[in-house]
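INPUT
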Amino acid sequence: MGFGRILQGEVIAIILGMACITFLTRFLFVAVLGRIRISEKAIAVMRFVPIAVLTSLIAPAILAPRGYVDFSFVNEYLVAGLVATAVTYRTKSLILAIVVGIATILSMRLLLL
Amino acid sequence: MTLANEREHSLKEFRSGLKAPLPLALGVISFGMAYGMIAIQGDLSFLESTLMSIAVFAGASQFIAIGMLMSGAGALPILLTTFMINSRHFLMSASLAPFAQRWKLRWKVLLSFLLADETYALTISSFSKNAPSKYYQLGVGLNIYIIWVLSSMVGSALGPIAGNPQAWGLDFALPATFIVLVVPMLQNWRDFAVSFVAGLLSIAGFIFLPGKWYVTFASLLAAAFGWGLVEFCKAK
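OUTPUT
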């Protein structure tokens, strides 16, 4: 199995390195931007960031759940995503969106298999 | 506000932050357990696998690091990949920075450490509706952190005996959460346009770019597109 060549100590070093790098990506802008004033316009544009980030996390997860793009109605994740969007519009309930979405996925698998 | 009132208010914010991630706990738990199992299959010891969840706390890059370790990759490519995968957090922390300006350094350090995708999504969605509170963000972050560490420990302890969460559709919990969070943010045609462009670009990036680069790529360009829209509309 695996990586017998790598010593325990090296694994620990890799883990600690990963921890430092991850922290840096999360901390740098909070630390640096804290010292300068942020303009109204920058805040208006920052409004788009969560929309852009969330959408780009969602799109591949539902359009390419198996690693390749599947833009069809036999892709149960895409259908579940559309159903969850409709549920959100009507109820704004997270639990309902998840439950109805997962139910969609499982029933489509039952029907299509 | 008196000191006692303030403490009570902070505690209230902290509690509502702690509660906020509960609906998506299922998604984090299945993801964390899957990580723990894969780490054991990849020859990490229980302690190493747990240490990674405690110290790194970044699901996607942990999965990929295990995969790279299994294929015999050394420290440098793994660290470089970690940086690329997590570069999306630059954008997230930049968008939280306006709220963080008044916080003390130790709060910035603590909340930055806890800033996972899910923490960001819940926090920014709350900050755009309610008064921003660092205690709320702390509650959200701590909850997800604890769930992540515990479920990865359970996964490592169970090892390869447990099943695959994908078979039960549980991996849909995460995208469903993001959908519920983003839909109410779409309030005018510009928001829709930015979201549409981000979706198109993320798919293009998913096909053509390695790892999780598609998130950074699509978010940056789509936010820049939104900036263009704001500028263009003012010019008219």
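end of record. Residues 225 and 231 of chain B are 10 Å apart (CA to CA).
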